[in-house]
Write a structure and sequence with these properties.
Elements lengths: L7 H7 L4 E5 L4 E3 L7 E7 L1 E7 L5 E8 L3 E2 L12 E4 L3 E7 H10 L1 H24 L4 H11 L10 H7 L4 H22 L1
Antiparallel strand pairs: 1-8, 2-7, 3-6, 3-8, 4-5, 4-7
Helix pairs in contact: 1-3, 3-4, 5-6
Length: 190
């Protein structure tokens, strides 16, 4: 069996003759209806794939951070079906569609892409399970489990609230409750 390195797909994309794209928070990398020119790899910051519901509500389909490919399924489409909006100031490399299609013919990129997409599916299934949980505390526990217990970077709790479909205020109340509970346990053990 051939071992697939976790970053093999991303490494192969970045080895292509990429074009660097830099965006400020709120700016678009692409819009729904734009032609698909290739695959984006986020180098820094964060980008969200966004659709808008019939009532104008903003629906985040993906939040991609450093090292993530963005809109991978779009390589098989002529036009994007959503917007890619910088959630933070960001930089991304765009691997050209023609180079990707040629590399897919050799099989190596296809194998690495399949492994990458399998990991993404596993993560998405975890997120679906997380969203089926009731209550802020249970969803936060699920998010922490998906992220190996690591807290988000400074200022990242609002993005976590969006990801677990709760209000930032409800999440902050849960975090404060946990801090108070942790403090009282520490006092009791003394």
């Amino acid at each position: 069996m051939i071992a697939i390195m976790p970053g093999a797909f991303i490494d192969r994309l970045l080895a292509m003759p990429c074009r660097r794209i830099v965006r400020r928070r709120g700016e678009a990398l692409f819009r729904a209806g734009d032609p698909v020119r290739g695959l984006h790899v986020v180098l820094s910051g964060a980008v969200e794939l966004v659709r808008h519901g019939p009532g104008g509500e903003r629906i985040v389909l993906q939040r991609a951070g450093a090292g993530d490919a963005l809109a991978e399924a779009s390589i098989h489409a002529l036009r994007y079906h959503c917007d890619a909006i910088a959630a933070e100031d960001c930089a991304a490399d765009l691997a050209p569609r023609a180079a990707i299609e040629a590399a897919l013919e050799t099989g190596d990129l296809a194998r690495d892409m399949a492994a990458y997409l399998a990991r993404r599916i596993q993560r998405l299934r975890g997120q679906v399970e997380l969203l089926s949980r009731r209550g802020v505390g249970a969803r936060l526990e699920g998010w922490l489990a998906l992220n190996d217990g690591a807290a988000p970077p400074a200022g990242g709790w609002v993005a976590v609230a969006r990801e677990i479909a709760v209000t930032p205020e409800a999440l902050y109340r849960e975090l404060a409750r946990r801090r108070r509970a942790g403090d009282s346990r520490q006092r009791q053990s003394r």
